Amino acid sequence: MHRLCRSILFCISVELLAFGCVDPYEPDTTNTVNVVVVDGTITNLPEEQIIRLNRSRADSLTGRFGTRPITKARVEVIVDSSQVIACHETVDGSYQLPADFRGQVGHAYQLHFVLANGTEYRSNQQVMQPVPPIDKVSSQFNTKSIFPPIAGFYTAGHDLFIDFKDPTQTRNFYRWDWKLYEKQEWCKTCYQGEYVIYGDITATLMNYSGPVGNVYTYTSGNTKLLEDCFYELTPPPPSIRNPLPEYKYDYSCRSQCWEIIYSHDINIFADERSNGGLIQSRKVAQIPFYDHNPGLVEIRQSSLSADAYRYFNLFQQQTQNTGGLADTPPTALIGNVHNVANSREAVVGYFAASGVATVRYWLDRKDVSGISLGNSSPEGSSALPGAELFYALNLRMPQPEPSPPQQPQMIFLYGPPRPPTAICAPSDSKTPFKPEGWRE
């Protein structure tokens, strides 16, 4: 769930498009919807600054929506109408500013990009607003914290509250999100394959009539690193045409690893009724109770411009406060990016610049000792390390590769002992690097 909705603007904007199309517009075509979706925020933190570009398109026959990243675009950020900072594409549709780039409060930022076909887009300017620090964090366990329930049964969680001092003499607008680090014990799942460390593998040409699957052998002294799933050779040699039944195996982490789970709700606030006052016990996070073990929560308090606040306020109303499909359907939420040559083209999403204050909170979960997670796994509980978190993320218990080999497992000859452990590959959802503030 969390991996799929890593980009909140992208995920929910696509859902909005499925119900209709905050600014009404007449699309250039009546049979399909085909829009550019922009997701990017410049911050003042020492972190990756990434702009994500995607395209959402409805099939002309079925009406179903699909999305794909926009690749090979020329993307840049213009600072104070003069300095141009070029971005480079890291993975499909993600464009990263230079590693040493940091936004600065009081400076103006503008997004400009040109697609591979020459279509040019530009945002309006966003002036980065200051943000006050977070003074205090507290938590409270709540059996009904999560609604609607995640996966149909995860309702419990920890509500996190903060105190901070709102600046005087200025109107301020805030947004909160969070990032949760959980200790991860399982680093790789192989579907219809098995994890191998070395990739110098060939099929063994021999007659084999045992109860297991096909036979493979390592060559070249195990020097070619793969560190990934190995799948049956295609096509297999004539002597071992033995297709394996459907199966999947899970492999434990070779080193320390942390799962990264992100918030996916809009949480915003305007200080019109509390300007200059002490904001107390503002609920900023609802951390799902996936695991009895401790976790680390990073709370982010971001400043918004007045225009950005209005956009996210509409976004919130259309995604979190709707009564259902019987209500009047929303229109496509058009943001602050436009086609330079065609003002009638709708561009979904928002480019923002935010000052960000962060605090890391150790969630020890001592207040949930003896409390059930509440899931109703038909597989029952598991004594395997990390099984609770694994089930929450995959809705099944981990299934290690059996040892010794048994059906439908492939056999590897002359290789390292099996089953191997898997590396913790850095990604948006995992990190092998100990998070700052983690307690052993």
What does this structure look like?
The structure is a single chain. This protein has about 450 residues and is mainly beta. About 10% of the residues lie in helices and about 35% in strands. The protein contains 3 helices and 28 strands. The chain has helices at about 10-20, 305-320, 385-395; strands spanning about 35-45, 50-60, 65-70, 75-80, 85, 90, 95, 110-115, 120-125, 125, 135-140, 155-165, 175-185, 185-190, 195-200, 200-205, 215-220, 225-230, 250, 260, 270, 280-290, 295-305, 335-340, 345-355, 355-365, 410-415, 430. Strands 1, 2, 3, 6, 7 and 25 form a 6-stranded mixed β-sheet that branches. Strands 4, 5, 8, 9, 10 and 24 form a 6-stranded antiparallel β-sheet that branches. Strand 8 (about 110-115) and strand 9 (about 120-125) form a beta hairpin. It is globular and about 75 Å long. The chain starts with 7 loop residues before the first helix and ends in a 9-residue tail after the last strand. Mean pLDDT is about 85; it is low at about 1-30 and about 325-330.
Brief account:
This protein has 440 residues and is mostly beta strands. 8% of the residues lie in helices and 37% in strands.
Cα(first) to Cα(last) distance is 28 Å
Mean pLDDT: 85
General shape = globular
Low-pLDDT runs: 1-32, 323-329
Radius of gyration: 25 Å
Largest sheet: 6 strands, mixed
How much strand? 35-45%
Backbone structural class: mainly beta
Number of helices: 3
Q: What is the tally of beta strands?
A: 28
Percentage of residues assigned to helices: under 10%
